[in-house]
Amino acid sequence: MHIEFQTLPTSQPPLAFRMLDYTVRLKREYGLPLTQVVMFLKQSSSELVFTDSYYDESTAHR
To answer: How many CB atoms lie within 10 A of CB 9?
Structure first.
């Protein structure tokens, strides 16, 4: 399990891309199933806190 703690909905690089990066690194290192959870420590009305996937022209991560 990968748990990410976040205070703001924005980050650099974007959170969804970072989660993809962590998934690839952890799968390569350990080769085990992975569950990811992001816990926001501050209340926010931003739609970014509900983002559950990353898409670009060459990949998709959920």
So the answer is: 18
What proportions of the chain, in percent to the nearest 5, are helix, strand and coil?
30, 25, 45
Total-model pTM: 0.82
Q: Where are the domains of the chain?
A: 2-61
Q: CA–CA separation, 19 vs 24, rounded Å?
A: 9
Looking at the chain, how many residues does it have? 62
Please list the residues that pair with 2 across neighbouring strands. Answer: 36
What pLDDT tens digit does each residue of the chain (62 aa) get? 999 999 999 999 999 999 999 999 999 999 999 999 999 999 999 999 998 899 999 999 88
Tokens of 43: 């209340």
- 36 in helix, strand or coil? strand
